[in-house]
Amino acid sequence: MKVDFARVELYFVTDAGLSRGRSNLEVVEAAVAGGVDLVQYRDKTATAREYYQRGATLLELCRRLGVPLLFNDHADIAALLGADGIHLGQDDLPVAEARRLLGPDATLGVSTHDVPEAHEAIAAGADYINIGPVFPTQTKQVALAKTGIGLGLVTEVVKLSAIPVTTMGGIGLGNAASVIASGADRVAVVSALTKADDIAAAARELKRAVREAKAKRG
């Protein structure tokens, strides 16, 4: 079953290297307790076998917690384990090929950094697109990581897109409201939760900020 993005306001992407020694299982469980609606398992340093093993354990946890889990990039492992879908970067498998592996019910997302990439991902059949990095960030190794794309591009992409849009990159409690004010309906975060002393509390505060900003926007 595809992810219902109408129910997604806070999207969490894992990064074990930024989790202060805490396991992905511990971090995800706390994040979901705080209100995270969707989780993406991202691990750029794991071998394929490690990714499979860790992904299986994390998927079991997310099933128990009742939250969807997307894998980052590894369409083959996502298909083998029956994950809810995958998130693809610009250098990963094309959407059509990933769809062949995962089937029609999987959720496929694509990272985009400008309007042409957004148009291309939508035309290719993505279920959602992510636009970013919105602000400067150290968690994404892309050319725009030092500057961010800015809120104006978020507004432009949200307006043109007929599919759900997620936003990511340098988003935290201090600026989440501005992302929502620019037209976004949801935010995706990494270090705003992984580096928090109290992950559940940080998630609750972020989700409250998103909801309050949406209420002000009308």
Give descriptors for this structure.
alpha/beta, 8 strands, TIM Barrel, globular, about 220 residues, about 40% helix
Please characterize this protein's 3D structure.
The protein has 218 residues and is α/β, with parallel strands linked by helices. It contains 9 helices and 8 strands. The chain has helices at 24-33, 48-65, 75-81, 95-102, 115-124, 151-160, 176-181, 191-194, 199-217; strands at residues 10-13, 38-41, 69-72, 85-88, 107-112, 128-131, 165-167, 187-189. Helix 1 packs across helix 9 (199-217). The protein is globular, with a radius of gyration of 16 Å. The relative contact order is 0.16.
Count the E strands.
8
Strand content: 5-15%
Q: What is the rounded distance between the termini?
A: 30 Å
Uncertain stretches: none
